Amino acid sequence: MEYTGQIDVTTLLGDTNLIKFVQNTHDLINPNIILMKGGEHFVVLFIAPKVNIMMSSLITAFLLILEYLIITKMDFFRNRFFKSKKLNIHLNDRDLIILRVLLDGTDRFSEIVMRTGLPKSTVYRRLLRLIDQGVVEEQNDISGKKYKVKDEKIRKLVKGY
Fold first, then answer.
1. Which of 48, 75, 119, 153 has a 20 to 30 A CA-CA distance from 112?
2. What CATH number corresponds to the domain at position 145?
3. Domain of 54?
């Protein structure tokens, strides 16, 4: 009885260099068939039912493919397995002016308008846009609404900009 293990490495690698990689490591992985169908690459391993050979061959194949991923596809590997939060914020000059005023300690709408010198409608629209993007948060207080920069990372970015 033979064990057939099929590894779809195209979804992991998305690279045509896989055939060359497998050919160079033929003795270690020992694949009997390499199929290419529809642009997809498959490595099919036919291994005898001996447990030691099967386990060592599968582990070797997995480690070699993982090593190939890490070395040649570091960004792809990182994005696929380690999800990171990407900051996707579009700021223009007026947004930066408002954010700098907020970072200086101004938190009331009338003070923001006075310190920026921008029209009320512009400040209002920009604040709503920044709130929608999650950059600024609005707090209702007894004396009115207060605005503040929401995230410490955004504070550092604005100060450095």
1. 153
2. 1.10.10.10
3. 3-81
Domain-embedded: residue 64:
yes
Residues contacting residue 82 through CB under 8 Å, at least 6 positions apart: none
**pLDDT of amino acid 93:** 86
Whole-number pLDDT of residue 18: 52
Number of domains in the chain: 2
| CA–CA distance, 98 with 157 (Å, rounded to integer) | 14
Q: 3-state DSSP call for residue 17?
A: coil
- Which pTM value belongs to this model? 0.47
* 32: its two tokens: 């009997």
Show Cβ contacts of residue 2 under 8 Å, excluding neighbours closer than 6 positions. Answer: 46, 47, 48, 49
Q: Determine, yes or no, domain membership for 86.
A: no
